[in-house]
Amino acid sequence: MKKAFYLETFGCQMNVVDSEQIAALLTGLGYHQVGSAENADLVLLNTCSVRDKAERKVYGHLGRFKPIKDKRPDLIIGVGGCVAQQEGEKMLEKVSYLDLVFGTHNIHRLPELLQEVEQNRQRGCETTFHDRDTRLNLFPERTVQESVTRFVTVMQGCDNFCSYCIVPHVRGREISRSSSDIVAEVKSLVAQGVREVTLLGQNVNSYNLKNDEDVSFPQLLELINGIDGLQRLRFATSHPKDLTAELINCFGSLDKLCKHIHLPFQSGSDRILKLMNRGYTAADYLDKVARLKLVCPEIRLTTDIIVGFPGETETDFQATLDLVEQVRYADAFTFLYSPRIETAAAKMADDQSALQKQQRFDRLLDLQQQISAEIWETDSDQVLPVLVEGESRQGEGQVFGRTTWNRIVNFQGSTDLIGKTVAVKITKVFRNSHVGELAEAE
Questions:
Q1: What is the domain extent for residue 15?
Q2: What residues form DSSP beta bridges with 358?
Q3: Nearest Cα to 153, choosing from 166, 165, 142, 167?
Q4: Which of 61, 65, 100, 51 is closest to 79 using CA atoms?
Q5: What are φ and ψ of residue 317, in 5° steps?
Q6: Phi, psi of 56 (to 5 degrees)
Q7: Is residue 281 classed as helix, strand or coil in its secondary structure?
Q8: Domain CATH for 396
Q9: pTM of the predicted model as reported, rounded to 2 decimal places
Q10: Which of 51, 130, 305, 316 is most buried (CB neighbours < 10 A)?
Q11: What tens digit of pLDDT does each residue of 255-273 get?
Q12: Do the bridges between strand 408-412 and strand 3-9 make them parallel or antiparallel, or are there none, so unpaired?
């Protein structure tokens, strides 16, 4: 009888790809995936530690599994990902019923760790960082899935060491895959029916910056844009300091590159940006945004913003509001600053009260929601190309897809449309999605 595993994934798209590798490894060991921990022989959490709330959520979820373990002592519980990398052996000390911990460089060790638990009831932990060559050989073979869209990892790690960010500490230093491997993977995915790929990296803009022997990121985009059968191309996440003129020009020259970019600015204050070690000023950022809009007038931007960074003043915060009003983002991911161990910002003095931070956060949220509503309302009554991805969660014979701006659109349609780009007239605009109807052919 096959054993069952239950897997929860937290955090970024990179973790989604890692979970795909975890699932493939477990399938190879004879496991099958189930939708609840109660029905599993193995429970795994693939975790995120980018903010304190995400880390606390992991421990909260582990607590949910204790009653199941009490009833079934043979249940194996494991934690992987960034929290595992950060905490290591401490997780085993904190959670007595946890069996195994594996870090971001050690997904390939999971079968070995699992065997130790199954056969010897030996709790295990592996959080070793590997060198560049070893890591490049550990990029997984992609599994066959019925999917219209897929993520493709082009690089891992980060060398920026922004003062608030734990990513370099839990993901390691930057490495870039060879362009030939990436192109081959995309071609393979397209042959399986994939029509849109999103290239992933902690900072995709720095792809191969330290390797003159392979192509640059804009050149990689050109290569992938030329793959027959691929309809759309996206990438995330971008660091503004590495957004070159060559990359900006891709939005005007590559027909498959979607007219959307996620470009975190974090703060509109030059003083705070310097403390954050971001490597650009507000003026630098606004100049690049202006060039993006010049090259591609239809482009829409999304961003990340941190409120309450240590030492932030009302003047600093007002500069952030001013930048939001100037750029007019379609959407923004807004966060209250959360100190992370090992980062430089965690040691900085901070005299702001929690109430003050929350009030600023609410002001920012109100402004951004107003701007988002105005931008998305312009889609109303427009006929837009939508790549159909699958059946809608709304049911009732609806399918869903996304616009070039990554906006979900639900509409009445046959599942025969999945994988095709169709013209949809937008009839209703909600906060997080659109409703539309198939446009009649002219």
A1: 3-128
A2: none
A3: 142
A4: 100
A5: -65, -40
A6: -65, -35
A7: coil
A8: 2.40.50.140
A9: 0.89
A10: 305
A11: 999 999 999 999 999 999 9
A12: unpaired
